[in-house]
Amino acid sequence: MSYKQITFIVLFLLIIVGSIQSQNSNPNILVFSKTAAFRHKSIPAGVTLMTELGAKNNWNVSFSENSNDFTDENLKKYNVLVFLNTTGNIFNDLQQKAFKRFIEKGNGFVGIHAASDTEKEWVWYNEMVGATFKDHPKVQNASLMINKFSKHPAVDHLKKEEVFKDEWYNFINPRCKIR
After folding, report:
1. How far apart are alpha carbons 50 and 92 in whole angstroms?
2. Residue 87 burial by CB count (10 A; 0-12/13-18/19+): exposed, middle or buried?
3. Which residue in 104, 103, 97, 106 sits closest to 67, CA to CA?
4. Considering Cα of 38, then 41, then 6, then 15, what sign does the dihedral take?
């Protein structure tokens, strides 16, 4: 995944954090990048980007690859968890329960790229993310129809149809309908 692709994905992070920022002027964000399966070479670029975004937007950004950070006590320091290319089964039962309680309290979550390739056997997580990574073909172009009905700034600047070159994922057990 390229720096440009990470930047595009982080646009969605900006939207979520922007919502939280209206409630909290200096959101506390934990960027988690532990891998127990494939490790993406772009993780350092994502860390750099999140550091830059934190400085630019006055976010308090912390980084970790330690699953032991997933306790109620530690997670209460954060408003948002960002899974940056996490893969594989990375949590024990207690860590899963702490993470679930964090989300149930109304805190934010952003999964970047391979986050859908994480905790494949944990039904709750997969339902929260929406689908589970299966595989992907080679990097290729795809034409996307852009729904601009909401006039949201994340898509308002785009044309009705856009072509993007990316690593398009195939999913198993999607939990939502794609239109």
Report:
1. 27
2. buried
3. 97
4. positive
Q: Give the start-end residues of each E strand in the chain.
A: 28-32, 60-64, 80-84, 108-112, 132-135, 140-145, 161-166, 170-172
Model pLDDT for residues 35-90, shown as the tens digit of each residue: 999 999 999 999 999 999 999 999 999 999 999 999 999 999 999 999 999 999 99
State both tokens at 9: 């994905």
Separation CA 70–CA 34 (nearest Å): 12
Quote the tokens at residue 148. Answer: 């601009």
What are the phi and psi torsion angles at 155 (to 5°)? -125, -10
**Which residues, including other chains, have CB under 8 Å from residue 52's CB and lie 6 or more apart?**
none
Identify the three-state secondary structure at position 84: strand
Residue range 91-138, pLDDT digits in tens? 999 999 999 999 999 999 999 989 999 999 999 998 899 888 999 999
Tracing tokens 């530690």 back to the chain, one arrives at 74
Q: Which residue has the tokens 């595989």?
A: 135
